[in-house]
């Protein structure tokens, strides 16, 4: 059976001889949250978006690569708590159809600007 995410964090922390109190002081994360994280008690933790931030801070404090730690967290959540995972955020890249509409709109604006009838002042 693979190692749980919390056991991984605890093992890495203990190998470096860093206490949870020290991590709490440095990261400003409550000790109860750190304990819940190491014990895989996700029900006692806030929403996953916050947990990712905690894991990033924890990893930096202990000397782990934050991105790797977050990837491990996400994998652990997908395997054990799929209801806690969320789909990735939608892409912000516009679709080809919307890009065409935007270009068409600006084309009409330019055409209206360059081909609009100009008024000449009336000589008095």
Span of the ends, CA to CA: 95 Å
CATH architecture of one domain: Orthogonal Bundle
The overall pLDDT, averaged over residues, is 86
Computed structural class: mainly alpha
Helix-residue proportion = 55-70%
Rg:
27 Å
Quaternary structure type: single chain
- Rough shape? elongated
Sheet of most strands: none
Low-confidence stretches: none
Just give the CATH class of one domain.
Mainly Alpha
Listing every helix as H and every strand as E from the N terminus to the C terminus, the arrangement reads HHHHHH
The CATH topology annotation of one domain reads as: 434 Repressor (Amino-terminal Domain)
Secondary structure tally, helices = 6
Question: Could you please describe the fold and organization of this structure?
Answer:
The protein contains six helices and no strands. It has helices spanning 5-15, 20-27, 31-38, 48-62, 66-80, 96-115. Helix 4 (48-62) crosses helix 5. The longest helix is centred in the C-terminal third of the chain and has 20 residues, at 96-115. The radius of gyration is 27 Å and the shape is elongated. The mean pLDDT is 86.
Note the main attributes of this structure.
124 residues, mainly alpha, 434 Repressor (Amino-terminal Domain), 6 helices, elongated
Fold blueprint:
Layout: H1 5-15, H2 20-27, H3 31-38, H4 48-62, H5 66-80, H6 96-115
Can I get a quick summary?
The chain contains 6 helices and no strands. The protein has 124 residues and is mostly helical.
């Amino acid at each position: 059976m693979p190692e749980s995410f919390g056991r991984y964090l605890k093992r890495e922390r203990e190998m470096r001889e860093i206490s949870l109190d020290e991590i709490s002081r440095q990261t400003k994360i409550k000790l109860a949250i750190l304990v819940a994280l190491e014990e895989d008690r996700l029900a006692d933790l806030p929403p996953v978006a916050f947990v990712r931030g905690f894991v990033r801070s924890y990893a930096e404090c202990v000397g782990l690569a934050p991105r790797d730690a977050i990837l491990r967290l996400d994998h652990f959540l997908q395997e054990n708590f799929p209801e806690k995972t969320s789909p990735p955020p939608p892409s912000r890249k516009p679709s080809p159809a919307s890009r065409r509409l935007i270009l068409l709109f600006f084309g009409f604006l330019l055409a209206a600007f360059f081909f609009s009838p100009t008024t000449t002042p009336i000589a008095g």
